[in-house]
Amino acid sequence: MRDLIGEFATQYVTELERQLDSGNGQRSIQNPVLFLFLGDKSVEALQAVQAHNEHNWQNGHGVLYVHAYQDKTWEHPQVIGCRLPQADADKKKMRTSIHERFLLDEAVTMELNKVMKLASVRVAEMGKLFTAFQQVNIAVVARADDPATILLPELTLLLKGYLNELFKNVSVDLYVLLQEKNNGEAFGFSTALSVSFLEEVTRYQRSDYSYRANLLVTEDLVKLPVEHAPAPLFSLAYLLSDKTEHGLFIEGGMQENYELISKLVLLNNKKVESEFHESNEGYNKLQFMRSITVDHGQTKFASAGLSKVKRPTHAIALTVLSAVFDRYWERLQDGEVLPKTKAREKLGLTAHDLQRKLAGILPEDHILEEMTGLMTSGISYSELCSMNIREAELALFDGSSQAFFEANVVSGARKRLEHMLSQESLADTIQKAIIEDERLGLYAAYYLTAEHANGANLLDELRTGIRETSRQVEQIKAEMVDLYQERVDRQDIRVGGFFTRDKERVRTFIRHLLDAVYGKKLELLDWEMMLSILVSYEKQAEQIHRQLGEQVEQLEALHKQLREIAQTSVREATDYLGKNVDEYYESVVHETIRSLEASRGSDFYMEQRYIGSGALLSGNRLAGLVERLCQFCRNEILTRAPFALSFEAELLARANVGAAYDNRTVLTKGDLFLDLAMVLEERAAVHIEVFHFLQKHRYEEKYFFADIHNDFVQYALHKDENTRTYKLGCIHEEQKSGIEKMNLMGGFGMEDLMFYRNNKKYHASYEDSGFVFRRVEGDETS
């Protein structure tokens, strides 16, 4: 059931965001991008970044990913894997052993060359998906505590070398993931690895860093040098921690960093803005690089933070579903109360209906005439006169009359009764006449079959009929006993005079006996069949009520479940946009349904083409009802005007709905925008903690990802424009279903990092204990 409900909400989210973002012509990258993920610990990042890119970039399917791994990788059509040398089992040499084996194993180097060459060719083949093809960007992603990061310059420069053969300009950016939150297992070793890697990256980013090594290997084992002239290895080096600059751990952990990487790569490779707006400063990568490089020759890093406020569409969909079911459930319980007469008519239990049923069960009256042809014993009338009726019947027929009646009357009637009850069950009648009637429905049937019901009480009616019919049966049985005790010679029959033959007198008596005795037995059978029908209906009604009770319990459980799921979803929409979701959308649903009821009738949604009156519960159980409910919401509720409001109008409407509940001052548009700006800024704190980072070293740029024509964006761009110390702009994305803000910060060095200051002692102590982290110098120069 939860799967059905979740699928409904997810589908609505997808459809709405597709509609709102249908004009989003900017969310694509203009030039090819190739990702390089280092080490086994980067698999999670690889999967998450690929998923973000595919979902958010129009040409995301043209992006390739190279994964350099040792044991663990991810198979995907866009992922090219290359295996690295295994690390030494001894932790003391684990990191440096990878580099040593890489230098010595020509087979590994050759395989690596094949992979990098293949990747560069495949990137070139994707050229038609991008507007600019002269430039390619390599995005290198690594976990700082992964031992495989020791091969960072080799892998980066080898891939860059092959791409340089196909593209005029190749840029490389580095994204380092720092995991500071540790569960206590191997934290010292992991920290020492991270510190070692940060020191290496600091060296790679110096302006005088150079590299030369024979890395290019052909199929004939001919080696060619890979060179890097004195310059930083990466255009930009981002450090992304699971801690913010305020020293707080990020709630989403590394997942937020994976999304940040996708967004940063988009920012650095986006299309040029097509229009300029006052107060909007566009992003320029080269300008950002120059701005964070304050001291010539010193390594400077960058970091970023991302906040999002999106329409809480998932919570909205679930709240609407719950509110619609609330109204539907109320209507089910408010079903018409049936008076006794109407209940009898709808269920076919009037005296006329029951007689019609009996007429189809009992034989025709001529059955008694057929019985006159039964063989008799030849006894004389004078002998019969001394007997009572029972004795005379036995003397005449020797039991054949009773056997004939049982075989030709009683047995047939019982079979026809069983057939009639199976073909015209009370359950089927209640289903069609009560449950499927839009004016009545499931609860009307439930109350009708209850022990203590208001209005018509089916069980009470049936039991009254059973008592009355049982008395009739007992009365006729008593009359039968008296009749059988009567003497033959006291019967009021004309048997003729002195000259009437004996046989004629016997035949006259036989006709009288059959009429009197078996006429009474036919009457008894009539009442017994009526009693059987009523008893069967009573049992069916009790069983139906139990079944309906189960369905009512399921409906009540569904009502509770929908409410809990909706409330949970609203609570999970923790950002500012989750405000007043339930109050606002419950009122929207009520107004929408009232409008629909006014145009289509108060019971329109009880019709089978909409939700139905609960009849689906008998077949598909709750699943069928939930499917109808979801479809009704999609077609009749979520398509209405209140659900097509602009991002701001919808937010403002919800912000103001609470005023009627708690008497607050109505939130103005300006108040709303101010609150929203503060929330966006607070949650966009950069993902790195620095120590006493002086303002003169700190360079910041901040960008909204939204529709630049959005009133809130215009408000934010002009707010404090004369006093702010940072660059502010908007990356235009038409008809966005929400607003995102990215804060960029750079200009800090390794010594500014709290992570490095707090943890370099682990690195030093591990080295003093014999652990080797540094690279072995080969024919590399730096």
UniProtKB/TrEMBL annotation:
Coiled-coil stretches: 459-486, 538-572
Keyword set for this entry?
A: Coiled coil
What is the official name of this protein in its record?
A: Transcription initiation factor TFIID
Organism of origin is Brevibacillus fortis
